[in-house]
Amino acid sequence: MVLLPEFTIKKSKRRKTIAIKIQNQQVIVHSPYGVSVEYLTQLVQQKQQWIMIHLQRQQAQAQPGHFDRETVDLFAKPYALNWQIASKSTYLVSESSITIHTASRVKDPASFRVKQLENLFSEQLSDYISQRITHFSSLMGLSYQQVQVKYYRRRWGSCSSKGVVSFNLLLAQVPTWVIDYVIVHELAHLKFMDHSKNFWLLVKKYYSQVDEAQDWLNEKMNLLDTK
């Protein structure tokens, strides 16, 4: 006999229909008031095969194999990577290692650790960029409104017409001299919102290793990720 998967019932006065959702490897049955637990249990039993398929998919996605790797790069320097369960979720960067603590109350530590690694990259990169973008914007005589760090799949940065300059958090794994290129590149878009000849003249005026930086990024782009 196959055991019925555990599920949670959430009832709402506004809901008119019944829906079964799989969220964070948990089965949640959304139902209007007036529907009996017995009926909802029978419905879960009828949908058991569908539920198990989706639970298995989420479990596979939430347990990426990269967490058994032993090192991670921070500004192109390799650090020993240690994962530990603790009372509070924090991280500590030492001279040669990074220790990431995951709170014991976290129900899905595997997927949560992806966010922890992204937060680490974002904080470290933000600290570096905040210093360098101030330097380069002053040097180039350009002003921006806001700086953001976020995850991009296929770009290193962007610049909006409103002066919002964004950077890919994966740049935290990149050498600082290459990050400087991305900063100058995006700042130049504050004056030229294209890749015209004048745009590249401006970039090369304030950054001399354009070709080398582009080669590095093109070669390494597919190797950098948090997943």
Structural class: alpha/beta
- What is the terminal-to-terminal distance? 37 Å
Main beta sheet strand tally, sense and closure: 4 strands, mixed
Corresponding CATH superfamily of the largest domain: Metalloproteases ("zincins"), catalytic domain
Main sheet strand line-up: 4-5-7-6
CATH architecture of the largest domain: 2-Layer Sandwich
Number of helices: 6
Dominant shape: elongated
What share of residues is helical? 25-40%
Count of discrete structural domains: 2
Radius of gyration: 24 Å
Strand runs, count: 10
Proportion in β-strands: 15-25%
CATH topology of the largest domain: Zincin-like
User: Overall mean pLDDT score?
Assistant: 87
**Contiguous runs where pLDDT drops below 50 for at least 5 residues:** 62-67
Under CATH at level 1, the class of the largest domain stands as Alpha Beta
Strand/helix succession: EEEHHEEEEHEEEHHH
Pfam families: YgjP-like (PF01863)
Organism: Pseudoalteromonas ulvae
Protein name: YgjP-like metallopeptidase domain-containing protein
Domain YgjP-like metallopeptidase: 16-219
